[in-house]
Structures are given as C-alpha cells and as structure tokens.
Amino acid sequence: MKAIVLLSGGMDSLVSTAIARHQGIDLAALHLNYGQRTEARELAAFTAIADHYQIAARLVVDATHLSKIGGSSLTDKTISVSKADLWNEDIPSSYVPFRNANILAMAVSWAEVIGATKIFIGAVEEDSSGYPDCRKEFYDAYNQVIRLGTKPSTDIEIITPVIEMKKHQIIEVGITLGAPFELSWSCYERSDRACGVCDSCALRLRAFEQTGLRDPIEYMVRPAYL
User: Fold this and answer.
1) What are the chain's domains?
2) Is 136's pLDDT higher than 70?
3) Can you give the pLDDT at residue 3?
C-alpha cells in the first residue's frame, strides 16, 4: 500500500507519520508553504522528519495564495498571534480559512498520479484549537468529495489516525513508536525558540506536562498550563 502523509512538521503530523510507518505503508510526504510566519522553520522540520523516516518521495507545494487571501494571524503580520487561552471556545485568529481543504485537494491530485490509496492527516478534533476543518465530519464529507471527483478507477481515502485523541495521548503514542519529537515544530510565532505562549505552544506544553515528560524543543518561556 502507498500513502501520502501531510507533514507540516508539527507534533500531530509527526505522530501520524509514525503510525503510518508502523503499519508498514510506503510513504510519500507532502508539505505546504503558504506564507506562514514560521514557514522556513516548518519546512526544516518537515525535511528532518522525512529524512528520519527515509521518505524519498516528497512534494513541497507553494500555496502562497492563502497568504494573499489573508484573514489569519499566521499569514497576515498586521494581525497579532493570540496568546494562549485554552478555555476559549471561539475560533482563534490563527485559523487559516479552509486551509485543510486546499492541502487535501493537492494531496488527492498527487495521490491519483502516484497511485496512493490513503492520505494521512494529523487533524485533532477534541483537544485542538477549535478549527472547523479539523472536525471528523469534515473529513467524512471530503472522502465523499474524493469519490465523486476522481476517476472511477481510483480508490483514495483520507485517514485521520489521531483525530479522536487528546494531545497527551498523541504524545504517548508517539513515544511508544519512537517518534522524534525533538525534530518537530509547533510554534506559530517564532522560528529560533518556541515562544511558549501561543495556542499551539500551550497545547503542546500542557500535553507534555500531562505525560510527565519534558518537551525536548527549546522555548523562550515554559509556563505551566496544567
């Protein structure tokens, strides 16, 4: 079996890659550059993780149209990256409008060309930042779109292996599978040392606290989020 893994370089995509590799699947890795603040750092994480898992087939897609569209603090530097609020129920400023639909469309196109039958994405629903394109029902609907919009001879399915997990459970699975967390990058704002105070850093730090482990990447500050 051949599968594409959507590898942003973050913790969730790392563990999704580890799960797919553990299943013995032949992997191809796709990464998106979309003008995000930490684009170069995320690309470096993608490369390091793909090297670690010896993934030869790689595709880095230029999706700068997302930054031209704007509407997100990740792509528009006039919008401040929100500080962590783990009890916020509103969609945060870091949401990139319909980003996952864009990257999935590219992945499906590539899957048709290379004969991949699965697309792994590290979306997390319950313990995420509330992004609407991280919900299970979104991926169920997108699988239907794939069935309707591809050649009858294709058989492509989106796999969301961590979507129902808590962040600390994702870490626990990753530790079991030997995932190299030190190679991943989650910070929304900085590329030298993680800020420690954006939503993504907070979710990651809290998850490591819950497992009783120390996050191996460097932070400007390490607040306690438990």
Assistant:
1) 2-180 (3.40.50.620)
2) yes
3) 98
